[in-house]
Amino acid sequence: VERCTRYRLTNAKGSACGRCMKTCPLNKVVDADGALLIRIAHWLGIKATKLKPLLVPLASWLDDLWGYGKRNPAKKWWFDHDLVKGVAVAARGTNGRDINPQRKVDPSRHKIAYYPAASMPPPDEPGPVALDRKTALAMQNLLETPEQARQRAARKGAIPLHYIPTPPRNQRPG
Questions:
Q1: pLDDT tens, 102-157?
Q2: How far apart, in Å, do the first and last CA atoms of the chain sit?
Q3: Across 27-173, where does the E strand assignment appear?
Q4: CA distance 65 to 61
Q5: What is the per-residue pLDDT across 27-59, written as a single tens digit (0 to 9) for each?
Q6: How far apart are CA 57 and CA 133, in angstroms?
Q7: Phi, psi of 117, deg, nearest 5
Q8: Tens of pLDDT along 54-82?
Q9: What is d(CA 77, CA 74) in angstroms, rounded to the nearest whole number?
């Protein structure tokens, strides 16, 4: 989320692109007039949750096969702005790339910043709170795999402290 937000809000040619929403095969608009297959897939996603490990890769593959996920300028819902000296102005250009389904991604080359619940600002914080990406990158070592979490839960292990949200400021001890 942080990476996307920074891309959308701070980079020229990136203001509120919405690419993630428009290209995700699991984020299709479902209505009574929609394609029957999309309506069935949506129903299965809600009602047959145990099938999701099978359905998600299938949905992604079909989405790419059928060419969904391409931008549709007629359905653009965001404004393209650049921030110049703190003032929003019309963008000089926009990032017009579509996704490339053939692109191979090497997960080992991607840095993931992890902002655990304990590092979030208190819910009653009145102003903005700066993010510390370097600390968040180091926090990725705290992540449990789903299997590790299941094992911890099975042995009734304590919830890691970094999973506990920051309390409101008026509820902090001392």
A1: 888 887 888 888 889 998 889 888 888 888 889 988 988 888 999 999 999 999 99
A2: 33
A3: 81-84, 87-90
A4: 6
A5: 666 666 567 777 787 788 788 889 888 888 888
A6: 31
A7: -55, -35
A8: 888 888 788 778 777 677 777 665 667 77
A9: 9
Rounded Cα distance, 118 and 139, in Å: 11
Beta-carbon contacts of residue 4 (< 8 Å; ≥ 6 apart): 20
Distance from C-alpha of 43 to C-alpha of 52, rounded to nearest angstrom: 11
Contact in structure between 25 and 62 (CB atoms under 8 Å)? yes
On the question of pLDDT at 158 being above 90, the answer is yes
Tokens found for residue 75? 């359905």
Q: How far apart are CA 7 and CA 14, in angstroms?
A: 6
**Do residues 83 and 10 make contact, with C-beta atoms less than 8 angstroms apart?**
yes
Give, for 172, the enclosing helix (H) or strand (E). none
Look at residue 45 and give its three-state secondary structure: helix
Do the beta carbons of residue 102 and residue 149 sit within 8 Å? no
Taking alpha carbons only, the member of 17, 10, 18 closest to residue 84 is 10
β-bridge partners, 90: 81
How far is residue 81's CA from residue 14's CA, in Å, rounded to a whole number? 8
Burial of 128 (0-12, 13-18, 19+ CB in 10 A): exposed
